[in-house]
Amino acid sequence: MLNRVIIIGRLTQDPELRYTQNGTAVATFTVAVNRKFKRDEADFIPVVVWNKTAENCANYLGKGRLVAVEGRLQIRSYETQDGQRRRVTEVVAEEVKFLDKGGTSSGTNAVHPSSTKGSADDWGKFGQEVNLTDIDIVEQNEEDEIPF
To answer: What pTM did the predictor assign?
Structure first.
């Protein structure tokens, strides 16, 4: 059996980092992925990331950043405080690749401080289809402190 998901898209907002009661980091964010045949439609896919990868995503990703997420699809249910049953479908990421060069939302750990995240020029391309030949993939070096 196989449960494997790979998505490429842009973050709709900055990742939200939390810690469990035992101190495990968990980050959540949503990735907007264009539909192949309808340019004006996108799917908004919730992503959950754990441990060090969660902290790296929270520190180095922000709204509008292009990412590739590889993981598994998870469907879970829970009961709300008022007793209603809810179902959640999300991607549990095992690997997150940062596909563009940019800063963070706070700017404190910016990878490229000269980038003007959120400028009108940056947002002109938001939501457009991405070709793999247009992506500048930055390889991770084990000696680097930055996770890409």
So the answer is: 0.65
